[in-house]
Known about the structure:
Protocatechuate 4,5-dioxygenase, Chain B; alpha/beta; single chain; 9 helices
Amino acid sequence: MSRLCGGIFTSHVPGIGGAIAKGLQQDPYWKPFFDGFDPVHKWLAAEKPDVAVVFYNDHGLNFFLDKMPTFAIGAAPEYRHEDEGWGIAFERPYPGSPDLSWHIIGQVVESEFDPVMCQSMLVDHAVAVPFELCWPGDAPFTTKLVPIAINTVQHPLPSPKRCFELGKAVGRAIESFDSDEKVVVFGTGGLSHQLEGERAGHINVDYDKFCLRNLAPDPEALLQHDTLDIVELAGSQGVEILNWIAARGAMRGSVRELSSNYHVPISNTAAATVLLENRTTVSA
């Protein structure tokens, strides 16, 4: 069976892509954030995961307000990044893992979720920025992608508990997939930020640190707030923590934090990067 070896949780701010494109990784404004990826790079080099299952939110590239699925799972042989107007040229295609995608889809439907199944799908900065952060350079990606989009835009949004349960279903699917591949899960987005309205620029350091403190040892602590509570606490875009909650739900083994980095602000966002190891798996 395949093995879920760990989880990477990180911000996907478009400005990060701009910093990469301009070579600003050592700039004083950006360096504290990019330094958080040193342990991630070392871990990826050692583990060499075959597939990344990425929980993220689409920003109007595949889905818009007139058609917004609560959950969507990609089942394409390849994914490409499309610039949504931010001027970020991520040209390397992302190879897909259709067999694992369809296995996950089948398993989550058996768990009474109803995802949109996407045999053709583009990805935006919510996938592209984390991939570029984790595997910098120009070499083709060797880690395959299974993208899982969660609605964090159009209300009503899924509850934290619902996202956590989705993650658990995905974790069971990964563990039951007939393959010797190693899988890493990603939760992308956040942390606290709001880009519009009277609260534009809102950052809640206390809530962010609450999430970081509990992500590994007690993820269910993050379920005590409903979705509207999170919007109030973390901002209208801070609700992207739902992606982190889903990814953490997929990690059903003995979870240990290997590194954690928090930096405020980049592009009016509280940015963070967390690396978790999934040391053993558990039975269904």
